[in-house]
Specification:
Number of domains: 2
Largest sheet: 7 strands, mixed
Strand order of the largest sheet: 6-5-4-7-8-10-9
CATH architecture of the largest domain: 3-Layer(aba) Sandwich
Mean pLDDT: 85
Radius of gyration: 23 Å
Order of helices and strands: HHEHHEEHHHEHEHHHHHHEEHHHHEHHEE
Structural class: alpha/beta
Distance between the termini: 61 Å
CATH topology of the largest domain: Rossmann fold
CATH class of the largest domain: Alpha Beta
Strand content: 5-15%
Low-confidence stretches: 213-219
CATH superfamily of the largest domain: Vaccinia Virus protein VP39
Number of strands: 10
């Protein structure tokens, strides 16, 4: 019989205990559904960087520390995102399988394309060493994952986006953590009337947009929309008995969500979709506010700005960490995807093309070149506003096959976007501390892999 050095290294002992006892303390229990290598790595780093109390308060991948459940686990358990009975089995399965990754807190409001898994953002915030009272910057907020996660962790945040719709959506998600919910109960009883008011406003916005298209009358058009919005706000306020702008914006976001859904699917009427989505929105808000009440948790401040990330109105050396994901400009046309929503809020789409990273240029090659130019400017700004010796974490997708076709060069000569970003970052004083890879499932036809880059600014 084969001899082993001691009983702890025999096959039966090693296999029965598994690898987790080698990586984590015995009193640690990981969250369910953790099944990817990058998740295990992020959890391992959390366990080494955070204290047990910090793991309970802010850990991303832990269900229990000793006999105490973590905030993340309690935030995600219970009934998941409430879906209408006619939802597809695929959609229901997605939320069941990703209960601890996405959909919790107010992340479940408006399913924006290309969004982070919020759980995946919470872990790097911890792994960068950010603590309560620090400030984290996301110069491309998209759907608000970073500000929401940071605010629930006691970390201040600054979020910037060139898209006025992304800024609007982010502000709604953040406001929803604290505004009163009684007016929402009134709105649920009168969804048909609320829907009618917003439909009239959207039609007016669309007509104004078409009328002013191709002209230089942008300011009068915006003034007309603002006046119409004020009138719409008053109608909704009279209907539900509350004139809080935060409540109006929340209801309007639900309407925009349902209108976008109705454009993609003709199976249900727009009103039916609005009713179901508003019910889901209200459920989401009441659930997270109940959890926050039980935790005695007050969200940290989040400053949400509309602006150009290549020229940020932020002071030098004023942030303790940065985390963002550049737009997948070769995979998703964000302006085309958000056209209806942008028109409803009176945005000038032609101006946005010049402000949004990677959208300038006519050919794919020109867009690629403008993307690299824009990212160079953005990384220079990140180096300026970040404190020395602090981290900038970038989550970026890449597809060598697609870049090969776009640039007209053999695949083996293509540099992945993540490698290009690392090279650009090094010009501005960043060094690469760690790179984690993960496969993309949602848009894998255009983005095969995604990389989490932990970059550290040198102490100059």
């Amino acid at each position: 019989m084969r001899e082993y050095k001691n009983n702890c290294t025999g096959p039966e002992t090693v296999l029965s205990k598994g690898m987790f006892h080698c990586l984590f303390p015995q009193n640690v229990v990981l969250t369910p559904q953790l099944n990817e290598v990058y998740e295990l790595a992020l959890a391992y780093y959390e366990s080494k960087i955070l204290t047990e109390e910090e793991l309970i308060q802010n850990g991303a991948y832990f269900a229990r520390i000793g006999d105490q459940f973590t905030n993340h686990y309690l935030m995600c358990t219970g009934e998941s995102v409430r879906l209408p009975h006619y939802s597809s089995s695929r959609l229901k399965s997605f939320f069941q399988k990703n209960q601890f990754r996405t959909g919790y807190a107010t992340h479940g409001l408006f399913p924006y394309r290309g969004k982070f898994h919020p759980q995946m953002i919470k872990a790097p915030i911890n792994d960068m060493g950010l603590k309560a009272g620090d400030t984290v910057l996301d110069p491309m907020i998209g759907s608000c994952s970073v500000p929401i996660e940071a605010s629930l962790m006691g970390i201040r945040s600054i979020g910037i986006d060139a898209s006025p719709f992304c800024r609007f959506m982010t502000q709604v998600k953040y406001n929803s953590l604290t505004f009163p919910t009684d007016p929402l109960n009134h709105a649920l009883k009168k969804t048909d009337k609320v829907f009618e008011i917003f439909s009239d406003f959207a039609n007016q916005s669309d007509q104004t947009s078409k009328t002013e298209s191709g002209t230089h009358s942008v300011l009068p058009a915006q003034q007309s929309l603002m006046a119409e919005k004020e009138n719409t706000l008053n109608q909704v306020a009279n209907l539900i008995g509350d004139d809080l702008p935060e409540i109006f914006d929340f209801l309007f976001l639900a309407y925009l969500d349902s209108a976008g859904y109705a454009e993609r699917s003709k199976k249900k009427s727009p009103l039916t979709l609005f009713q179901a989505i508003l019910e889901r929105y209200v459920f989401v808000v009441k659930k997270i506010q109940g959890v926050m009440h039980n935790f005695n948790l007050t969200p940290s401040t989040a400053l949400i700005l509309e602006g150009d990330s290549r020229h940020m109105a932020i002071e030098d050396c004023s942030t303790d960490g940065i985390i963002f994901s550049p737009p997948y400009s070769f995979a998703i046309n964000y302006l085309e995807n958000d056209a209806f929503h942008l028109n409803c809020i009176g945005a000038d789409i032609d101006q946005l093309k010049e402000r949004m990273v990677g959208l300038r240029g006519k050919t794919v090659k020109e867009k690629y070149e403008s993307y690299i130019e824009d990212m160079d400017k953005l990384l220079s700004e990140c180096a300026r506003v970040l404190k020395p010796s602090c981290f900038c974490t970038i989550v970026i997708g890449t597809n060598d096959n697609q870049l090969s076709k776009a640039l007209g060069i053999p695949k083996e000569k293509v540099k992945g976007l993540h490698k290009i970003i690392v090279e650009l970052a090094s010009k501005h004083g960043f060094t690469t501390v760690k790179t984690l890879a993960r496969q993309i499932s949602g848009i894998s036809n255009t983005m095969r892999n995604e990389f989490i880059l932990f970059l550290k600014l040198t102490d100059q």
